[in-house]
Amino acid sequence: MRKVVAKINGVNTSDGAGVSLKRVIGSPELNMLDPFLLLDEFGSDNPDDYIAGFPPHPHRGFETVTYMINGKFKHKDTAGNEGFLTDGSVQWMTAGRGVVHSEMPEQTEGLMRGFQLWLNLPKDKKMIAPSYKDIHAEHIPVIDADGTKVKVISGEYQSVIGPGRPHTGVLYIDVHLEEGSSIDIPIEDDWNAFIYVYEGEISADTSISKGKLAVLDTQGQFSCKAKMNCTKFILVGGEPLHEPVARGGPFVMNTKEEILQAFDDYQSGKIG
Q1: Quick check: 62 and 252 in contact, CB under 8 A?
Q2: Which one of 35, 105, 163, 213 has the fewest CB atoms closer than 10 angstroms to its CB?
Q3: Residue 134 is part of a domain; what is its CATH number?
Q4: How far is Cα 169 from Cα 150, in angstroms, rounded to an integer?
Q5: Total count of domains within the chain
Q6: Is 272 inside any structural domain?
């Protein structure tokens, strides 16, 4: 059984044009967890915290996975893609060799809540063509039984395969548990994995409460029990790339020279 090896609080910050969020991976406590580069949680019913959105900005060398639990967001990019995120839907964007996109709220009031995950691309796929996929809530399979509900966004759980199609092995599920319910989740050995509790509290080899990310060790399944009613957490696991990582703002490559080239390409209009 996988044990918790670290608990991460994350830091409150802002991004885009002033969107308030909590950065958990990509924070001083946890710079990355190969292949995961960043995890942000956003959640507020105050429009001032999200109304400015994320105006056009570039990316290169990785994928972004945005899971909208509550709210409405519109995506538009220079590859000609447009998408509309609503409650329970997912946006899967592969930046590849480069794209400029925007993510803007399509609401002026009410709750907006969700997660954005940055997933690194392997060296041989960093310069592939950009792509985009909207995954509507009704296309995300749900396994509902015995006080547990599991949404399979990517990877496989109980022979159900999620609609996310990453370029590396990734398991991404959203788990809802009633008080006292338990769950066993198989994860590929040697994969890195984490859970993030966004409602309630769970008990594994240690307790993990709301707002905490738990890094798991790399062998066996993960088992836990809900300590509170309506407990909710995401579990994400991925095959590590074991490659050098060079970061420069919105670009993630393997060398500093590649980062400098990405900035040159953006400034000269070759990205987007």
Answers
A1: yes
A2: 163
A3: 2.60.120.10
A4: 19
A5: 1
A6: no
